[in-house]
Amino acid sequence: MTNHALTNLALTTDTIGSGGGAAGSEPLADSNDDRERLARAGLSRVVEPGDLAALKAFDGMSALEIWDRLQRKSRGLERWSTRLAEVDPQGDLERAAAAGARFVIPGDEEWPDAVDVLADAGQLTRRAGAPFGLWVRGRANLRAALKQSASIVGARACSSYGDHVAAELSAGLADTGVTVVSGGAFGIDAAAHRGALAASGLTIAVLACGVDVSYPKSNSALLSRIAEDGLVVAELPPGCSPTKLRFLARNRLIAAATQGTVVIEAAIRSGALNTAGWAEQCGRAVLAVPGPITSRMSAGSHLLVRERNALLATSVADIVEAISPFGAHLTEPPRAPQTLADTLAPDLQRTLDAVPVHHPAPATRIAVTAGLDLPTTQQSLESLAAHALITQTPTGWRLPPPTPLA
Amino acid sequence: MTNHALTNLALTTDTIGSGGGAAGSEPLADSNDDRERLARAGLSRVVEPGDLAALKAFDGMSALEIWDRLQRKSRGLERWSTRLAEVDPQGDLERAAAAGARFVIPGDEEWPDAVDVLADAGQLTRRAGAPFGLWVRGRANLRAALKQSASIVGARACSSYGDHVAAELSAGLADTGVTVVSGGAFGIDAAAHRGALAASGLTIAVLACGVDVSYPKSNSALLSRIAEDGLVVAELPPGCSPTKLRFLARNRLIAAATQGTVVIEAAIRSGALNTAGWAEQCGRAVLAVPGPITSRMSAGSHLLVRERNALLATSVADIVEAISPFGAHLTEPPRAPQTLADTLAPDLQRTLDAVPVHHPAPATRIAVTAGLDLPTTQQSLESLAAHALITQTPTGWRLPPPTPLA
């Protein structure tokens, strides 16, 4: 039974690895033995994501060691034994395989090293640990998909502005080969996923429940499409429901897994700000899209820029610059086209300003108006005429008549 | 004739100084003799504002010295002699007095020292010099009015969002006693002046033409009202028309005279960005109001934040903080009200998440759902019940029924 299921799973991932368009072309190398995978699958059900007490109690132990000690009901670990009787990692792996999902663990070719930053808890102010593994639904290679990625997060109850901007920026990111990661929720999340899908790009939904659970229910068609064309990922095993703490723990994954987090519309009390906080702690880029100051929906984004040094994201290029290695993708700041008149030296400009529109004036008059001496004025007039900015008439200088519209 | 006019002017300013509500109550001290004022009035007509060549040629000379040398047609100053024949400083002072204006010069009690920063040209990358004097129309004391002031600048062709925000922020600034300074132009400028006037606050229009010239024409009613309730100020003597270079020179005055410049809606090619540049060079605060990234009108504001370290201005408080002495007016960042459930320790939150909404569950069941040991769960349930977050029933624990609406 055990072997059968794992074989099944291996077959599934193998097929996935070689069949997916966006996935790496090599079959997935698997350096982990079955015991390790089973232990981690079990732990992913027993230990709540981001459990601080667990992180402390298990400090320095391998996954196998933790799992063995829990089975042996070791002293000090009683706290995590309550669920043990109901845990069936082998069953979870089978259930996942049946739902078209695999369980990716550290050491697997597909494991996204980026999330390991979460294990380095000493560096973070809020310790929460790396996941024991990631349940993954979809054909793409998780590690490859995350290599160039940005998370787009924001309000569930977003405005039409937020919805529009999330879809546009995500489509633009997808166009430049950046994977769009979000949480599969209503509002900004859904718009971001949809934008990436519309541009035929890769998108990943990281859920706070099992990858086989459709939450929110009305996003189930969207989640299916993401699983079809992109990836649905969760730290929690199949069947799990979301809880408040699971949403917060999920946010740390989104932040850690991507090179940058972009907040689009977040009220002051928004999970997106929590994700941004994690991105900050993980050393990832934090960006916020500005909006009208009259909109409460943009207050959180503006707060990030004002109080937490988030970068202002106004375009796809801004985001690509921020998530790329230093200097790799510098944004060209927008510039207006310069006209000839913009580049005039001050004396020329002053002379030009003093030339009448209609009724020609002599150089002596123009010199007085411009406040320049006559020789300077004469020279400037010649120069302006040479550039066709003014015309000379028998009675003096004037601006050229406007070009008639064709 | 000379003395008569000056006496007239002195009487006017005296009346103004003691009569104006917002003005200082002492009569204006005048440490300048007539010769100095006449020389500066003359220079304000002969030398274009911000004339770099003049700054160089006159370096180290007093106003009287410059004026004398120009009269004597000294070598090297020929450039400025063209207008000399037509200049009548005494006439200008009379003309100003007739229009209800006075000519304020350094040393006058009313002189705003802030603009002297422009004389320290060595510190600036674009030298342009301090004004020889300021032509001032209105009852308020210029120096006092600028003591707590911010300039609000932006696009002439602003959107209704920009118009609304400019009026609201200006009204708010006026309410807190901050004088709103702008350029008297269409769009953001006009909205800013109107907002301050609507809040019965002080507002100052700094013009690129004479204080008696209504430019733009259709703003003449607004300019009259500003002169009535606030101040209209210009570096150029009465009767002068605006030119492109005069607009740019005017911008440096707006930036230097106030403690901070707030840009509201500026396209990439906007005079407001020029003003912001001057504010930067003068060591003044530079703020930009964000807007939709889909609006070209906000592109300049966002550019200032991204490329030139402008602060994001989202409220009156943000502006007041930025223009106040360090630490004097710290903005309280917006915070959402915290509910009791927000402050729960993780174990309590996990237990609460595991308590059913309708059908009571025993502690043993809740412990499994929460993934906590039974003693911890029991303790958490008691604590949650003590805060009325859950209720105990004969068959177990559940959330309290919702309070019926009155």
Q: What's the assembly state of these chains?
A: homodimer
Strand content of chain A: 5-15%
What's the story with the biggest beta sheet of chain A?
9 strands, mixed
Principal-axis shape of chain A equals elongated
Total helices of chain A: the number is 16
What is the class of the largest domain in chain A in the CATH system?
Alpha Beta
Summarize the topology.
The structure is a homodimer of 406-residue chains.
Chain A: H1 2-19, H2 34-46, H3 52-57, H4 63-71, H5 89-98, E1 101-104, E2 134-137, H6 142-146, E3 149-154, H7 160-175, E4 179-182, H8 188-198, E5 203-207, H9 220-229, E6 231-234, H10 244-257, E7 260-264, H11 271-281, E8 285-289, H12 299-308, E9 311-312, H13 316-323, H14 346-354, H15 363-370, H16 374-386, E10 391-393, E11 396-398
Parallel strand pairs in A: 3-4, 3-7, 4-5, 5-6, 7-8, 8-9
Antiparallel strand pairs in A: 1-2, 2-6, 10-11
Description of the structure:
The structure is a homodimer of 406-residue chains. Chain A is of the alpha/beta class and 406 residues long. The first copy, chain A, folds into two domains: 2-323, Rossmann fold (3-Layer(aba) Sandwich), CATH 3.40.50.450; 340-398, Winged helix-like DNA-binding domain superfamily/Winged helix DNA-binding domain (Arc Repressor Mutant, subunit A, Orthogonal Bundle), CATH 1.10.10.10. Chain A is built from 16 helices and eleven strands. Chain A has helices at residues 2-19, 34-46, 52-57, 63-71, 89-98, 142-146, 160-175, 188-198, 220-229, 244-257, 271-281, 299-308, 316-323, 346-354, 363-370, 374-386, and strands at residues 101-104, 134-137, 149-154, 179-182, 203-207, 231-234, 260-264, 285-289, 311-312, 391-393, 396-398. Chain A has a nine-stranded mixed β-sheet, sandwiched between helices. In chain A, strands 10-11 form a two-stranded antiparallel ribbon. In chain A, α2 crosses α4, α8 (188-198) crosses α9 and α14 packs across α16. The model of chain A is unreliable at 1-29 (pLDDT under 50). Chains A and B meet through α7, α12, β9, α14 and α16 of A and α7, α12, β9, α14 and α16 of B.
